[in-house]
Request: fold
Amino acid sequence: MPSIVYRGLGPHIAYERRLSGHTQADLARAAGVGLGTIRKIERGERGVSDAVLDAIADALDVDPARLLPDRERPDDRVHRSMPGLSSVLATYDAPEDGPCRSLAELREAVSTVVGLRLSAQYSRIARSVPGLLTDLCRALSTAPSAHRPAAARLLVDACRAADAVAFKHGAKDLSARLLDLMRWAGAQADDPIVDAMVSYVRTELHFGAQTHAIGLRALERALDQAPRVDSAEALAARGALHMRAAVLAGRAADDATAGVHLDDARALGDRVPEGVYRGTAFGPDSVRVHEVSVAVSLGDDHLGRALTLAREWKPPRVLPAERRSGFYIELGRAHLWSGRPDAAFESLKVARRIAPQHAREHRWVREDAATLRRLKRADAESLSNFAEWCHAGAGA
Reply:
C-alpha cells in the first residue's frame, strides 16, 4: 500500500522539538532526515510520510500520535499490519525457511515491543511486530531442545504485544487467533508463570464477549494452578490474576467475590514493590487502580468509593502509561454516572495526555465523549473537537 502523507504537522513537530531542547539541525541528524526537509515540514510547505513521521517521533522519543493534528487518525498503519499478522498465524507451526536473528537479538527486540505495549504506542508495535513474530516462530522451530523454552517465552511476550494492537483496534478475530498462538507457545515454555500470564491475557475474550462469569471461573482455575512460591514474580503473577478476577466479578455484578479477590490482590501487593513482572504491572499502586475499576464495574452505590479514592490518590508516573490512562478513563465514567460531566471530561483529557492511542481506541472514551456531547451542547468547541478526535459515536 502507498504511504500515508500527513498534513499540518509542522507546529506539533516544532513544539515537541523545542520542548526536547533540539535545534532543527539536531532533529535532522537524529531522524536521518535532511535539514531542508525539517524546515519545510515545520513551515507547512510539505507533508510527512509514514516513514518520516516515525523517524521524527523516534528522534524526539515521543509517540507518533503526539505529532498528529487532532482530526488525523494514527491507526492506518496499524490496519496495514493486519495482513502481515494473518500471514504469521497461517504458518506459525511450519514457518518458511529464511534468515533469523539470534536469541539475544530477539530478546532485545521483544523487550522493546513490551515497553511499547506498556506505554500504549500501538502504531510503533505494528511497524515491527509481524517481522518479529516471523523470526520468533523460525527460532522456535529450529532451536535445540535446551533453548526452546526461552524462545517460546519470547514468542508469548511478542504475541501479547501484537494482541494489544489487534484487540485495541477492533480486530477481534485476529486477536483471538493471536491468543491461540500465545497459548500454543506457552505450552512449550515450561514455566508456570507464563501459564498464569497467558490465562490473564486470554480473559480479553470474556471481556469482549461479556461472558464475565465464565471468564471469572477460568481465572479461578488458573489461580488454583499458579505457583505457590514466594518469589516476587510468582507473587505478582497470582496478584495480577486476582486483580483481573476482581474486575470480572465486578462486571458480573458479584460484589462479594470481587471484594475477596481485591483483598487477596491487596495482600499480595503489599509483599512486592510496584513494578512490571513478566510484562504485567503489579504492586500496591496497580491494586488501587483496580479498586477504581471494580467500583465502576459495580456502579450505583459503589461509585462513591471510586471518587473518594481518586480524591485521596493519583497513579504515580512509575506506573505504565496504559495503566495510568485506564485509571482516568474509569474515573471519567464514575464522574459521568455521578452527574459530574465537567469532571468526566477533565478525566478523559488527562487519559488522552498520558496515552493518546490508548484513549483514542478505548470504547468507553468514545461512548462517554458521545454522551458528554449530547449533555453539553452549549459547550461547543473543545468537547466537539475531543469527540471528533476519538470518533465518538463511530463504533462506540
